[in-house]
Amino acid sequence: MIAIIIMNLLTHRHIHNYLAILCLVFSCTVSASTYPKKSVIDFIEKANYYRYKNTDSTLLFAHKAYELATDTDPNLKLDALYLMIKAYMKAGMATSALSLCDTALIVIKNNKLLNRENEVLLYRGNLYQSMGFSPKALEIFLEVQSNIDNNYSPQYKADLYYYIAKIYYELNELDKAKTYLSKSLKVANDENLIQHTFSNYLLLSGTSRKKDTIQKYHELAREIIESNPNLSYEKVSLLNNQAMFNKALSNFSKSKKQYLEAIKISIENGFQKHLLNIYNNYAYLLMAESKYDSAYYYLNEALNIAQDIKSLDLESEIYDSFSDYYERTGDYEKALKYTDMYIVKREAFRRQQSKQRTMFLSAVFETEQKEKEILQQENEIATLWLYMLGTFAFLTVSIGFVVYFRQKLSLSRSRLETVEKGKELEIADAMINGQDAERKRLAMDLHDGLGARLGSLRFLVDGFFKPNEKYNDVISSIDSITQNVRELSHRMLPSQLENLGLEPTITNLASSINKSKKFVVDFETNLERRLSSKLEINIYYLIYELINNATKHSKGNSIFVQLLEHDDGLSLSVEDNGGGFEMNENSKGHGLKNIKTRIEYLGGEFFIDSNDDETNFLIEIPNEKT
């Protein structure tokens, strides 16, 4: 592995920097023979130094520390592993990071460091979050929280509360985010954890919509930076946040000063992703001031960085910014060109993410299979012992031994069954979350991609074809297509579901379909309360899938949706007048597989009542799953 890392470094354009690093590694390796523990600590410190600057260097030093720590301190070995996990996560290599989590668990088991086992769970949670499985990540973090006690370090507790708060922040549950940030902040203040305190203040500023509150947290974060000038990475984060805030207040001169200071620090320290983000933000400030030549320069610099670090996501963002730039300068033809480039890169990034998510879930499944095999081996050993000691018991009339090992076998089997059921639920959870995340991404791509392209097309038509006699017909067609795209995007990603609830969201879905005049959708419900977030989103997608199937495959023109709450749970029926449904026909065409997975995930059952005139899907979801 070390040879591969070195080869990667030698292909980098800044080869002289890495040759210096390799010389440093060699000198540290020579000294390691005399002071191995000190060398391990030195390598870990160097890996930490490069953590925000260069992923390859971080991996190089952390791996060297891991190798040297083999015969010294296993805690240092774990520290090196955790640094490598963080580096792989930063580079978007979730599968490699997950593999190292398994390695860390082996080190913990072999050296009986059970007090550090929950640290691995924290990284697993971060991995799930980075791959878009936030509900699963939150489940892991809350499980860790339930097991936490006074034996864990304050830094560990502060991290855990911060991670939970960050997920709630991403889910827009700001009150819960503030609660956990307060817990994290208390631990950080009590133990003088400077970086944790800073991170909490910065995230707290994002949970508020009040100007005075945001400024208060920015000021508290600034005081930490002034007292700790070595926190360069954190200072850039603060300056960027302050600059965006001042731009929103139209305080352009102050915002400009903060952006330029952040740019200077990022260049000095090699914070490439920070620099790209700041260049992009600063370009929008310059566009607001009508300084288009300068804005073009900084957008071009940002694009060079995105291409240099090979980030499809960031590259697509810069193309989108270029599209906005040319739209503002009146060059609609180039605006449309860059919108097309944005769509192509965004789609390539989406495919890349989908592939990474698939690889990640495969790696998760392989890990689960290994755990299952270990339990099966334990079961086989227990069975073997049962037979051997059963014979011995028969010969020696020691019934107590037989009873004991029978109980052991029973417990082993019960444990295996429990693990299998748990893993099935986890896989179903990951699959459903993945599908929902994919729907959200597709909806966003429709809105931001095709929607933006249609907008640019409208500008192009306005700019070049207005005198044409067919101008009004073309504009009407573009507006109609844009409206259809917007409605489809909103159906796939209903923004009102979180704010208004399930009933008005389904009512709006039915209304949008009724506008087509092809189908009449009636919706009836007795719901008088909000359901859980998990239940609302799954029921929405069940109804959406069933209505979508009916509009695609039904020969009728009427759909009746009924959602009723009763003592035992919920009853959902979706009925159409389009003829019978054959149970043996290809289920993929009707989305039956996805529907069945969601219903099983909710612990429910479904039935299909079909005849020559109509088809009715009946779904029952029990109370205990709601």
3D architecture notes:
It is a single chain. The protein has 626 residues and is mainly alpha-helical. Helix content is 75%, strand content 6%. It is globular, with a radius of gyration of 29 Å. Among the domains are: 356-486; 497-625, Histidine kinase-like ATPase, C-terminal domain (Heat Shock Protein 90), CATH 3.30.565. The chain has 24 helices and five strands. Strand 4 (605-610) and strand 5 form a beta hairpin.
Overall structural class, as computed from helix and strand content, comes to: mainly alpha
Q: Can you tell me the residue ranges where pLDDT is under 50 for at least 5 consecutive residues?
A: 1-34, 585-590
The gross shape turns out to be globular
**Distance between termini?**
48 Å
Share of helix, binned: over 70%
Biggest sheet, strands in spatial order?
1-2-3-5-4
